[in-house]
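Tutorial, part two.
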Amino acid sequence: MTQREEEPVPESDVADVVAVLSAHAADVDARGRFPAEGFAELRRRGYLGLLVPAEYGGMGAGLAELTSLAQRFAGGCLSTAMNWAMHCQQTDLVVRHATPELRASLLPRIADGEVYLASVTTEAGKGGHLLTARDALRTGDGLAVEREAPVVTGGLHADGFLITLRDGPDAAAHEVTLLYAGREDLKVEQTGAWRTMGMRGTDSVGLRLTGRVAPECVIGERGRFREAAADSMVPVGHLAWSACWLGAARAALAGLVRWITARGRRPGARTPPRRSSRSGSPGYASTWNWSARTWARSPRR
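Running the prediction step on this input gives:
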C-alpha cells in the first residue's frame, strides 16, 4: 500500500467535536443506540471526507491524520469513532480501487457529508472471514445483489454499502467481488439485533440487502477482491481500529488519574496503601489496583 501525500487537517474544531461525542457517549452506551448527534457533527464538519482527495472536495488527509483523529474521537465516544473509522476504511477503497466513473460520482458526496459508507463482509456460516463469500453475484440487467449479513456496523444508518459477493453462481468461494450500492438502489431489511457489552452504539445489526447496481459500481477487478483488501482494506482497517482502542484506553486512564488527583485534595481523603515491592520500591501496581477498586465502588454523579 502506498501512502498519499497528506494535506493538513484543520485542528481548531477537533476539541469541539470531541465535546459533542463525550456529551452523548453515556446515553449511547446505556441505550445501545447509534450516536446520531456525534455523526451529524462529523458530517457537518467534513470529517466523512477525511481521506477523500482535495480534487474531489475532501480533506486530502492520510493515515497519520486518520489514526490521530481516531484516537481523539474515541476518547469522546468509542462507538462513534469506530463507525467513523470503518467509514474511512471503505472510503479508502473507493479512492484507490473504484472506477473513474464511481469516484467522480461518489467521492464528492462523501466529502460533502452526504454519504456514510457501511461494510458488508460477514455471512452466516463463515463469520467475518474477509476473503471468501457464499452469496453469489448474478448478472443480467445490471448486477443483481441478494446478500444477507449477520453483522453490519452502522448499517441501518448508512447511505451506501460496500458489499462482498462470490463472483457468480459457478465461482469458487475465494473468487470474491466488491461492489458499491447506494441505499436508493437497495431494499434494506433488518434481520438481527445488536446486544453487546461493549461498543453498543455501533448498532451492528444483521441486514438483508437486495437490489441491482450498474457494472461501474464494481470496486477493483471482479473476483479479485483479495488484492484490494491487501492494498487498502486490511491495513487501513487495523490501523484505524487499534487507534480507536488506544484512544479509548488513554481517555479512560486520564479520567481515572483526574479522579484520583481530585479525591486526594479533599479534606479527610483516604490515601492508598503504600506497599513495597521485593526490591524495596513502592508497589505502584498495588496502589493503582486499590485506586481502581475505590473508583469503581464510588457513586457516580
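Helices lie at 14-31, 36-44, 63-76, 78-97, 100-111, 225-264, 284-297. In part three we will examine how such features are distributed along the chain.
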